[in-house]
Amino acid sequence: MGETMREEHSTYILAIETSCDETAVAIIKDGTEVIANVVASQIKSHQRFGGVVPEVASRHHVEQITYVLEQALTEATMTIEEIDAIAVTEGPGLVGALLVGVSAAKALAFAHQKPLIGVHHIAGHIYANRLQEEFSFPLLALVVSGGHTELILMNEHGSFEVIGETRDDAAGEAYDKVARTMHLPYPGGPEVDRLAHLGQDTLQFPRVWLEEDSLDFSFSGLKSAVINKLHNADQQGLILKKEDIAASFQASVVEVLTEKTYRAANQNRVKQVIVAGGVAANKGLRTALAERFDQTDIQLSIPPFALCTDNAAMIGAAAMVAYQKGNRADWAMNANPGLDLEAYGRR
Amino acid sequence: MTILAIDTSNEMMGLALYHDQKIIAEYVSSNKNQHSTRLMPAINQIMADAHLKPKELTKIVVAKGPGSYTGVRIGLSVAKTMAWSLQIPIVGLSSLQALAYSAKPYQTMICPFFDARRGLVYTGLYNQHGKVVMTDQNLLMTDWLAQLKKDEQKCVFISPDIAVYQEQIIEVLGDQALFADSGFNYARPSMLAFAGADMGAQSVHELVPNYIRLVEAEVKWLEARRNQGNA
Ligand SMILES: [Zn+2]
């Protein structure tokens, strides 16, 4: 069946992603079409620890990797022989977790003598959107996740300029810490989002804008303000409504993210704004951005929920650009937990 | 039968190619923290030297630990993915057993071990044919030597970390302890290949590392659950 389905002039990339707590394999056609997309989540295992334990994550990856590879090929009704290249997340991420994917990708590429491509995880998050619609350059990407809060300008495929980034905590990290202080179940981000919609912004937490023309972010002050407020209320025997705390915190985060994204988009006269990363699934952020860009000529794109969180489809989409540029990794390729996005784009 | 044997479970990286009941290539290199960058280039080189293509392999044998967690995972990720995608059988062998095979000529009990720091070792007991007598464990060398002393059997100690414990072993066991010549104190990938040649295949999906130790966070979690249960 696989034989007949494969289109001769198309490029099929098998991509592997193991940078954190999802073991994922996908098969992508021409960088734009999902043929198979399998994600084995470890959330249940890490829940008992209240966060991702790197050694536990690495152990799960090695237990799951061949199952997930097999499921992806089955879903695609393809054989490895029909794949044109093997791609893998090279970094950033947890080094022990990345190593499982990198080792598996190298073994697969070697066993079947296929080209090997290393992919930057954040490039992947941005390219998730290309599985939905084509890019219009210049383009601005707001990448928000547990590890990242960045504004990235792209003038063409495969080129990345970081024009704003967090100086301390990532937005997702602030969400997780606030959730933990509120004793919400792990993972806390989605729970804060859910509660925020049931409450009001009554507590008026600070909005941190930094210098007047800065596109950078800072969330650690806000996080501390929330934690202090909770502790003080505790000591005074006051009971704050959980919903209001969540709503007030979220209002501050969302306002800063939305405003800076809007400013950066106008300054750089971009045609399209892409929101990427796990926090792009946040309803409050989606709504605020949609309202802010509603009356503009700028196209706002947010991938569907399943493509916002970590997956391998996005890695396969980003890999297509590297493949076309002729970027090939050799057998000595390593996991690189500190891989730089701009340097990756200059390859 | 054409076998590729892989051992990255400890500091020595070892590779061997076995073809028609003979070793046709073997590569061993001390390789601290470089398994990730050096394993695939070495596999590529050893296969090219032997004029073998990946598709000509008929079996993979891999050392599955104990040892460095990361090292074990690199070896298993490569071995499992190759075996699965080439659809050939895989055998995972204890890294201690692989080490024990080096001491078969001694005709006594064999005690292979790896230093696990703070007085702890990974160790087990094997007979002169390299078969398991006491399964692999992680314990204090002091406790392990006390157990062996009670057994009163002669035993040859073999380990890349022999220098760390030799004095202590002699002190407790005296004549009961034998020591291999220095050249035998590391796992030979050729022995791994020979051992794996005779063994039945395991399920590639179910083959997992032999860490012996739980993750620290899991130990604490289990402890907390146990305390809750008692309260
Ligand atoms: Zn991510």
UniProtKB/TrEMBL annotation, chain A:
Gene Ontology MF term list: iron ion binding; tRNA N(6)-L-threonylcarbamoyladenine synthase activity
In the record, biological process GO terms are: tRNA threonylcarbamoyladenosine modification
- Which residues are involved in binding Fe cation? 121, 125, 310
Q: Which reaction does it catalyse?
A: L-threonylcarbamoyladenylate + adenosine(37) in tRNA = N(6)-L-threonylcarbamoyladenosine(37) in tRNA + AMP + H(+)
GO cellular component terms? cytoplasm
Q: Which CDD domains match?
A: ASKHA_NBD_TsaD_bac (cd24133)
Swiss-Prot/TrEMBL keywords: Acyltransferase, Cytoplasm, Iron, Metal-binding, Transferase, tRNA processing
Q: Where is the Gcp-like domain?
A: 33-316
Q: Supply the EC number(s).
A: 2.3.1.234
Q: Which PROSITE patterns match?
A: GLYCOPROTEASE (PS01016)
Q: How is the cofactor bound?
A: Binds 1 Fe(2+) ion per subunit.
Q: Which cofactor does it need?
A: Fe(2+)
Chief place where the protein resides:
cytoplasm
The subcellular location is: Cytoplasm
Q: Which residues bind substrate?
A: 143-147, 176, 189, 193, 282
Q: Does the keyword Cytoplasm apply?
A: yes
**Signal peptide feature range:** none
User: What is the stated purpose of this protein?
Assistant: Required for the formation of a threonylcarbamoyl group on adenosine at position 37 (t(6)A37) in tRNAs that read codons beginning with adenine. Is involved in the transfer of the threonylcarbamoyl moiety of threonylcarbamoyl-AMP (TC-AMP) to the N6 group of A37, together with TsaE and TsaB. TsaD likely plays a direct catalytic role in this reaction.
Q: Which HAMAP family match?
A: TsaD
Sequence similarity:
Belongs to the KAE1 / TsaD family.
Protein name from the UniProt record: tRNA N6-adenosine threonylcarbamoyltransferase
Organism equals Amphibacillus marinus
Lineage of the native species?
A: Bacteria, Bacillati, Bacillota, Bacilli, Bacillales
From TrEMBL, chain B:
Question: Which ranges does the record mark as transmembrane?
Answer: none
For this protein, the record's InterPro entries field holds: ATPase_NBD (IPR043129), Gcp-like_dom (IPR000905), T6A_TsaB (IPR022496)
CDD domains in the record: ASKHA_NBD_TsaB (cd24032)
Instruction: Give the Gcp-like domain ranges.
Output: 23-221
Q: Which residues form the signal peptide?
A: none
* Any GO CC annotation of this UniProt entry: cytosol
The source's superkingdom equals Bacteria
- GO terms for biological process, alphabetical: tRNA threonylcarbamoyladenosine modification
Protein name, as recorded = tRNA threonylcarbamoyladenosine biosynthesis protein TsaB
The organism is: Amphibacillus marinus
